[in-house]
Amino acid sequence: xxxxxxxxxxxxxxxxxxxxxxxxxxxxxxxxxxxxxxxxxxxxxxxxxxxxxxxxxxxxxxxxxxxxxxxxxxxxxxxxxxxxxxxxxxxxxxxxxxxxxxxxxxxxxxxxxxxxxxxxxxxxxxxxxxxxxxxxxxxxxxxxxxxxxxxxxxxxxxxxxxxxxxxxxxxxxxxxxxxxxxxxxxxxxxxxxxxxxxxxxxxxxxxxxxxxxxxxxxxxxxxxxxxxxxxxxxxxxxxxxxxxxxxxxxxxxxxxxxxxxxxxxxxxxxxxxxxxxxxxxxxxxxxxxxxxxxxxxxxxxxxxxxxxxxxxxxxxxxxxxxxxxxxxxxxxxxxxxxxxxxxxxxxxxxxxxxxxxxxxxxxxxxxxxxxxxxxxxxxxxxxxxxxxxxxxxxxxxxxxxxxxxxxxxxxxxxxxxxxxxxxxxxxxxxxxxxxxxxxxxxxxxxxxxxxxxxxxx
Length: 457
Prior knowledge:
By secondary structure, the chain is α+β, with helices and mostly antiparallel strands. It folds into four domains: 7-172, no CATH class; 182-299, DNA Polymerase III, Chain A, domain 2, CATH 3.10.150; 307-383, Winged helix-like DNA-binding domain superfamily/Winged helix DNA-binding domain (Arc Repressor Mutant, subunit A); 387-456, no CATH class. It has twelve helices and 25 strands. Strands 5-4-10-7-8-9-19-18-17-13 form a ten-stranded antiparallel beta sheet, with helices on both faces.
């Protein structure tokens, strides 16, 4: 098992919420961010008023709550006491995005504060962590009424303590947490809308979800029925996977502000017993997004969907080229990037998948487009966290792959596995493929054959 990643947040001072003078001030301290000019210890992204103050405060608390929640605890394991990772905030110029990931790696949350809620453009663009300490969360819970909400993401004045020290928080991030944060972006990019219901139906659906603790193993599906949604255990091409339906509970505090609820799902695969899904609660000038892994006991980190993109050396080179053209856009224009880099749009799409695996782009299903952000973690480490890809490269280096037309043979642990090309995709004779097919990404033998074919071209 890979060691945890030690993440240290260094804040000039704790975040706080101040009440008075007919308004509420939320000051978010920043740590270790990226800007178009490079790294910044304490970036300043926004200083202005937000609309819908009570809604915004409740949405921020929901994102922070996901980061502090373990929705699934393996049998026989005591609930882990983890210091939650602080949410990530990205300023895309005309909007702010707050992201978090659950401790169990199965739930991703994002709050998009859209242009209509901001009283003006951001001061700067980039990504950083923001301090969400207990006193600040308790104060946010008191925000209500119609008092204006002033938000500062970072401060444009030098804040120092008497002894010149900074506020530090340390957390050990599991490697699977980092992998999951990157993996969910690719999963989202492959989803399509399957349902949209009214605010009234959203309230009925979420409040009627069965209770649970993440121990339920039987997959469930939410399917549209007229203007409503209902849960069933029968897989449906028209529905969205919602195993562990209690994982949608973070939406509940925001239902009173909801305009509608949208559900997204990947193309239906009858061979897959469960599927990931994404849920967008549409608010006034904002959206709260929750993405659920295919099963409550199975986080996004093991899905392996990014492996095809990571194994593509051309995509890696293209990603390096495109990275210098990105400027924290709220919506990445593939055609513009293709023209700017003088490469085909298909290569841009593959490169964006590679950048997503490194945490350098996210995906917005409402916009049907990637957006630029830089997770405040080591991108090189993110790209190296995939043992199947390392094993595939080792097989190729050892000469264990023999390609003969549409059939290939891979010798691994004294066993020869057969990889065949078929109209619906490649197949492998190994037990791992027999169990998962490609529902959790390719096996190491499929990857090894793909690497060998590319090397021979």
